[in-house]
Amino acid sequence: MEEDRHYHSIFWPIMLIGVGLLWLASEMGVLAIPPINLPMLFNLWPLLLVMTGLHMLVGNRMHWLRALLDVFSVVLVFGLVLAGPQLGYGKDPSIKTHEISEDIRGASSAVLSVSAGDQVLTLKPLEAGDSRLLAGALKDFQPVDISIEGERERFISINGQPFNFTLWMGMPPEETSRWDLQFNPAIPFDIELTLNGGSSDINLQQAVLKALKIESGSGSTVLRLPPPTANYLLELNSGSGKMDIYLPKDAPVHLELLDKGSGKLIRPDNFMTMKMQHSQQGEWQTPNFREGEPHILIQIINMSSGDIIFH
Where are the domains of the chain? Predict the structure, then answer.
């Protein structure tokens, strides 16, 4: 009876030893285990709930049954880890390339909405005279939702998937999710970008920009703005990542800060202070700013801990 009362589960000792040995063998090349299978253990957490429930039902009376359940659970876990790919579960993560090649086909303007996760994102112009409205190669471990609608005004939506910890754990170290997009600089664009953990290089210097809205996260962002052919608005909601914004030379600019966090806002030396309510809000503009002339209006709606540096 005393032995029954003090039975200890062998599930965790065997699990920890087994995972360590498998991981070591995989790293040393002794055992060819696809990288996703070891992190796949994170997907098996419901098994812990089942084991806990069964142990509560059995209690301390039948230690032989508890031992049997422990052994069965260990065999099940390692069976899925080792044989999962052959059964169609837990296959290797691999980069898939999603191609975009949208012809102009009479489009006179476009609305581009991009929601990226932890991908490296680049956005730059196509060569002059290119017949495509938008082109790109989206290399990703996960599916990418691409929607294109409209004729004269084209609506293009590109959405990545939420961050997947288990998938991320199984990625080969040399592989990186990367989205490379190119737009037609002859077509006016309204652009909305949602950026999260990946770094971004947004080159709009040749764009005909109607409006630009950016919501950034923890990744760093480099943004190059075009000279205004007509008034356009840039709305920013910045996160913890650093943002470098390159203004076009001699462009009339009005900058408005509505809510500042702990990050630094570094403005060019020629910006004049127009209004300074307190350290969290203010307005500045270039000496050549005039109402009615083509200009750039920048509104920082919410600035978090990341620095915003204007060049």
Answer: 2-87, 96-310
pLDDT in single tens digits along all 311 residues of the chain: 444 455 566 666 776 777 677 667 666 666 555 544 555 666 666 766 777 777 677 666 677 777 777 777 777 777 766 665 555 555 555 678 999 999 998 999 999 999 987 888 999 999 999 999 999 999 887 889 999 999 999 999 999 876 555 454 455 544 578 899 999 999 999 999 999 888 999 999 999 999 999 999 888 999 999 999 999 999 999 989 999 999 999 999 999 999 888 889 999 999 998 887 776 689 999 999 987 789 999 999 999 999 999 99
* Rounded Cα–Cα distance for residues 135 and 169 (Å): 30
